[in-house]
Amino acid sequence: MKIVLIGEAADHREELAAGLDGAPRRDGVPEIIALPREAAFSDGHDERIEPDDVVVSLKFTRSGGAPPFRLLQVPGAGLDGIDFTCLDPGTLVCNVYEHEIPIAEYVLGCLLEWEIGIARIRAAFSAENWAQAYRHRAPHGEVHGRTLGLLGYGRIGKAIASRANAFGMHVIAVDAVAAADEHVERLLSPDKRDEMLRAADYVVICCPLTPQTEGMIGARELRLMKASAVLVNVSRAPVADETALYEALRTHGIAGAFLDVWYRYPAGTDDNVPPANTPLLDLPNVFGTPHSSAWTVDLPRRRYAFIARNISRLMQADPLQNVVRG
């Protein structure tokens, strides 16, 4: 048995090795190999994957069948990059969370940036114009008292809601299965989504991408939102229809958007594709970041410690955690 790290998972080899206990060893160190990003999409490296191996990769697809291996450990929560139909029936699949903390902090940072705009205030202020800047300072907004709408009330939604509560925000969440708690004023079923869209000053997309949620925010839904409302997407881009979103932002149907997830991603090491099919990043009311809301210095340590524990459980024939396909 060996551990196969594909693509950016290989960047966290040391974190994984530090957490392994009783893992396969060769020459006194855990046997871990790294494969390039292309190995997630192409069978060109499949001869290096053996039936007893663990593969760690955010994405895994094949045009044909994949080779058999014991466990696909996804080092994230999202599974839309995994082609389950290509996997051998005996391959287990697990995922990992730990990202709700930084994503919730990122979302609150977006809201505060929109209302306060510290960078904008700082840019307009200098020692030379101090007197004028002080006398004519423009008031900024507050998140206190604003209404936050959450599309999805899982781990991320709950982490956002608890922090929004601390800022005195009103929280409305939409989820098909979640239970209400003290952090939401209203928890609505999906058929009541329009009610949240009309009321919210901020709408945060934090639900998984599924056939049911793809394109869930389209032209109709964007028209329901306030012209002053701001959309924040930290889930998957296709939950919001790209063309409809671009038009709503271009024509100021909504006031702005913070977008951390995109419609196109590079597939290989040398692949260079634009993040969207429309010029979303050219719009002055769009704040774009490169899928980095969860990408903190502490996240890999937490995630790969979890992955190491799961691999140790596999070796000891103990039940695995976060099994999404057994």
State the CATH topology of the largest domain.
Rossmann fold
Which consecutive residue ranges, at least 5 long each, have pLDDT under 50?
none
Query: What oligomeric state do the depicted chains represent?
Result: single chain
Let me know the average pLDDT.
94
Shape: elongated
State the helix count.
9
Q: Strand order, main sheet: write it out.
A: 10-9-8-11-12-13-14
Classified in CATH, the superfamily of the largest domain is NAD(P)-binding Rossmann-like Domain
- Return the string of H and E elements: EHEEEEEEHHHEHEEHEHEHEEHE
Coarse structural class: alpha/beta
Helix content: 25-40%
| Count of structural domains | 2
Q: Ends: how far apart?
A: 19 Å
Reading off the top of the CATH hierarchy, the class of the largest domain is best stated as: Alpha Beta
Radius of gyration: 22 Å
User: Judging by the overall fold, what is the CATH architecture of the largest domain?
Assistant: 3-Layer(aba) Sandwich
**Biggest β-sheet, characterized?**
7 strands, parallel
